[in-house]
Amino acid sequence: PREWWTATLARRIAALSHPVYLARRPHADSEPLMATSHTIGLASRVERLRTFYRGRAGEVGVQVFGTMVPTPDVGVTLEAKSEDDPVAQRPTITLAFDDQAVTNLESSRERLRDVLGSAGLRVEIPGPFHSLPPGSSIHYGGTVRMHNDPQFGVLDGWNRMHDVPEVVVCDMSSFTTGPEKNPTLTAMALAIRAADHLATDVELRS
Description:
The chain has three helices and seven strands, in the order βββαβββαβα. By secondary structure, the protein is of the alpha+beta class. It is globular and about 65 Å long.
């Protein structure tokens, strides 16, 4: 889920020539698998003119990305177009944002107030807030998710398949949920970690 809105500042600040990124809350303060991130930038294209002469702005635009907990009724399924040609299949995407996902986004507004307020900048978020359309940012992943229990995941905690432990799946399909930020570096870190662990196991057995 993604949301975009403007925030009004109690005092004007230098117009942002580059976006500012506010990462997720610390894991210890977050619900399991739930997180949001904020990308803070210009409120409109006209505001970009202010960056050329070091002007000041009284509002910023905020884009929020949130995570959602995977459920069996949300995902992609394949259905045969006809019994005559069962190979010809079309994907069916089922997606709905439950109350937890919506509340997660709404709570991000208070987080922005708290963080900027701690820096001495009071912020008002008047809205309006749009509906949550899917597909505004796409990072494919999560189809071969990790879980300690093979009933709920294909891979163990080291990205190795429960059924075939010599096979490692270390791309974004191993993610347990969609991250609220660009996932490439996380996938690379998981791949290095999985390769090191697999190499260590092979060395111990040889």
